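Throughout our pipeline, every protein is held as a single compact record rather than as scattered files. Such a record has a labelled line for the sequence and another for the backbone structure tokens. The remainder of this section carries one protein's record, kept here as part of the documentation:
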Amino acid sequence: MLLTGGLKSLLPHARRRIIHCNRLRISNISGMAEGYKQASVVILHKSLADDFEKFCHANSGALPLLYRSKPGEWKCPSLSSDSDTRTDCLQYRKYEHGAFTGSLRSLKDYSEQLKDMVAFYLGCSSNFEKVLQAAGIPVRNIEQKCNISMYKTAVPCYSISNFCCNLVVAMRPIPESKLEAAVLATSELKEAPGAPIHMGNPGLLGIQDLSKPDYGDSVHLQPGDIPVFWACSVTGIEAVINCRSPLAFTHSFGYMFNTDLKNDRFALRSSREVPQVHCISQDPLHYSMVSAEAAKKIKTLESLIGIDPGNRGIVHLLRPGELLKTCLSLSHARSVLITTGFPTHFNYEPPEENDGPPGALAIAAMLQALEKDVAIVTDQRATDLNKKIIEEAVQIGILKEPVPLLSYQRESANSALTFLCENGNPRRPRFDHLIAIERAGMAADGNYYNARKVNIKHLVDPIDELFLAAQTIPGITTTGVGDGGNELGMGKVKDSVKKHIKNGDVIACDVAADFAVVAGVSNWGGYAIACALYILSTCEIHNCYLRRAVGFSQSPKKTVWLSALPSVTKKSF
């Protein structure tokens, strides 16, 4: 019997010859390809082959198709010189009408049935383990001498005919300091799942317990490791099960087919294709991806809005990178709540200033274009004004449809929790992200002040309480947009406000947001968020990560996104 160490040193054709002779007794061959591609195998009746191929192309992140055989063809010449579908894998699984009915060492006994069947060879994530190691990234399943952990998720694949299932992912623990290196190492590999589809809390994929994988072995995280998930070709097996074909075969988990194709590292060609990794939430832990080119454009936007036309010293409040992280978080959100309103004109009713509402509408318009749920909460006394603003925005085409207008009043100790969550349950938040733009913020003494230190508390509803409550609710991220330090959310930069802004020791907002977008004019911050969301929506790296590598790119919707961008009509005089 050949030891696994000797197996590693052999060329693929020699390994296959030993497998054909049925001389191996090992638990899996993960990590034993030594620089050669491995493939998952799915074998179906020929009547299902065309639909399954379409299913693979529609979900190519999980199912990169290496080869499709002809009916009854037992070889795959483009992958290997001496292959035999019936004996290429150390172990197979048999499915009848979607039910697993046994493991097989060979399919030779089914040669007659195989004449009417088609074999699909799919790239798998084990193909880049050597690449990860070459980049100095530990591969924990190889260290622990076990198979990778694979999990069923709550992410639906793109369905084709009878082929429909949820995505299956492979998890590899990656040290936090190596996340970007892992993404770079895997994102451009051909005929493999490519870049990760999620980094961070497994619950965001619907995975409840990492210690209980659906397939493979439990791989243990080391201190400082982040769970990183790649789309997995075992998704194809789930599709076979759900299809309920009378007869189907697949490889057994960990017993992939060894090809003669080398695992090559492909160089990234431009900043458009170079991915960056950014942490967008600590609770739950969540990282996102964006191209270096898109990140650079958003950084330029951030620099432009940081100009200080009033020379108030906001340069000391700027938080580089916050605009990008805010927009990455918004891009992942399903439902967003926006608040605005800062009473300054006391001779008018209502006394609102015009900085804030235009920026809020710009954000809302882009969120609608991105098919997010969006609502606005404002002071009860300003409801009629905001209702008219929204109605006019719909009439002139800024908004696709009216934005729900809400108000908030404190009626009990749990009012904020009840407002933000279904039945007050913090595990069921109604909103993923709260944005305050040019919204009066509560100071340390509990009052609200304008820039001249005038107390305007009697004009302000306690919407700050929503932001304070959000700090205790996992899954809700907050952003504050301001231009003076007394706006809701600017508590994140309150020390700088007190030190550098006139009257800052009194007026500084004490309520912090997760992200602080500081601008020379708050409306500019709103416009920048809308523009940055457009940039992200046209970034293929971010788009693929956002859709978990299932389905197709959303590029046909660019015209819808473009029409939602804030614009100014130029007039000649």
Q: What stands out?
A: Residues 1-5 have pLDDT under 50 and may be disordered. The first strand starts at residue 36 and ends at 45. The chain has 19 helices and 20 strands. The first helix runs from residue 4 to 9.
